Amino acid sequence: MAVPQLDPAKLQLVQELEIEMMSDMYNRLVSACHQKCIPVKYHEAELGKGESVCLDRCVAKYLDVHERIGKKLSNMSQGEAEDLTKINLQEKK
């Protein structure tokens, strides 16, 4: 399958959107895991073992769910594109 060529302006826009989406995901991850794993009042400057383990698990789960949702949405949009193609072919007959 051939990859469509984008002009430089569109490519720049796609890259900026991707960076913005990744930055948003990172900020949400940090916020969610910080809220879940780090107490409001700090007792020590360094993370405790329990906090570190909690953060590690939280990040792993967050990224796993993000990947699963991305795959599901991709499959759904691909299925919709196939359905539209079938409909267009049927209308042309």
UniProtKB/TrEMBL annotation:
Pfam families with a match to the protein in the record: zf-Tim10_DDP (PF02953)
One of the protein's GO biological processes: protein insertion into mitochondrial inner membrane
Protein localization: Mitochondrion inner membrane
GO CC, any one term: mitochondrial inner membrane
Membrane topology category: Peripheral membrane protein
Tim10-like domain mapped to chain residues: 12-74
UniProt keyword annotations, A-Z: Chaperone, Disulfide bond, Membrane, Metal-binding, Mitochondrion, Mitochondrion inner membrane, Protein transport, Translocation, Transport, Zinc
GO-annotated molecular function: metal ion binding
Family as reported in the entry's similarity comment: Belongs to the small Tim family.
Domain statement: The twin CX3C motif contains 4 conserved Cys residues that form 2 disulfide bonds in the mitochondrial intermembrane space.
Subunit-level organization: Heterohexamer.
Role summary: Mitochondrial intermembrane chaperone that participates in the import and insertion of some multi-pass transmembrane proteins into the mitochondrial inner membrane. Also required for the transfer of beta-barrel precursors from the TOM complex to the sorting and assembly machinery (SAM complex) of the outer membrane. Acts as a chaperone-like protein that protects the hydrophobic precursors from aggregation and guide them through the mitochondrial intermembrane space. Mitochondrial intermembrane chaperone that participates in the import and insertion of multi-pass transmembrane proteins into the mitochondrial inner membrane. May also be required for the transfer of beta-barrel precursors from the TOM complex to the sorting and assembly machinery (SAM complex) of the outer membrane. Acts as a chaperone-like protein that protects the hydrophobic precursors from aggregation and guide them through the mitochondrial intermembrane space.
Designated name of the protein: Mitochondrial import inner membrane translocase subunit
Organism for this UniProt entry: Bicyclus anynana (Squinting bush brown butterfly)
Gene from which the chain derives: LOC112051194
